[in-house]
Amino acid sequence: MKTNNTTKATGTLIRAGRIVSEPIESKYAKFKLDELQEYVGGYIERVEITWMGKPHDMLCNEDGKIKGLPINAFATDVANIGQLIVGDVVILRKGAW
Questions:
Q1: Strand order, beta sheet including 10-14
Q2: Which of 41, 59, 63, 83 is deepest in the core (most CB within 10 A)?
Q3: CA–CA separation, 74 and 14 (whole Å)
Q4: What are phi and psi of 69, to 5 degrees?
């Protein structure tokens, strides 16, 4: 019997209004766009960040500010880009999507 040794992509979900993060896992070796859109609740906007000393992508809702999504203080602090981050965000290592 053949086994599937494919490694699934992993990331971190930071929900607005919370001060903890949650690990997430894709069904695939790389995250698919529709999976990520489900986590952030809409179209994706990518913010390049350095997290834990390494380059990562922070993915947030592209229309989050227009839609009036709540401020994500934890993600704003992590991003450290001088702008407020709103709504739920996903942080992925480069190449995980």
A1: 21-25, 10-14, 89-93, 54-61, 44-51
A2: 59
A3: 7
A4: -65, 150
